[in-house]
Amino acid sequence: MELHTGEELEKDRTLAQAVQSLSDAKLESRRKDQSLRSLGKQLSQSQQENKQLQHDIASAENALTTAEMNKESLVSYMKSVEEHLQEMKDHVILSRRASSRNDFTLQLSRLSLIPSDLQRIMGNPETEACQVQTLTNHILQLSMQSSHITALKSELQDACLQERSGCIPVRAIPCLALNPNWLSVELMSTFILSSKIFSHTLDKILAKAIGL
Questions:
Q1: pTM more than 0.70
Q2: Which PANTHER family has this protein been placed in (predicted)?
Q3: Domain parsing of the chain, residue ranges
């Protein structure tokens, strides 16, 4: 009886220890589960942070590439601006030298004209030569007519003197017999016609010269 009671107590003690061990194991398992969940959360957070860091690195690399391209563009633009400024300085210096020294070559380059412009301004040389020749012919013709008029006037004066002295009658000169004013009218008409031709030609040449 006592032996049986001792065995039961030993069993109860063993069972109690087993239950306690099981409870401790459950608690340990819970703690481990909590630790695993916490580690899982930390791992997930670390992965997210890693992804964000990689994204930030990629953005930084893109920004650096863009900045490098912008830097190259800015350097190229600055070089072009410096070259343009240097060209402007050289142009100003050349302009000042040309204005101070009256550079003949620069003046010729500024005043250079194409042949069509020269022909438009100066006119056709053949036409001008023809007009000059026509004017010369009219001047010669006017001079000849003036000499002829002078000779006719002299003959008229001689005829008048002879008429007054009774040597030659007026009827001896047919034109004067029909119209005593014929000689004056003829001389005046010839002179007026020549004057008009000369004046018209001279006005054309003067107008062309003024147009230059």
A1: no
A2: COILED-COIL DOMAIN-CONTAINING PROTEIN 171 (PTHR47899)
A3: 1-84, 115-211
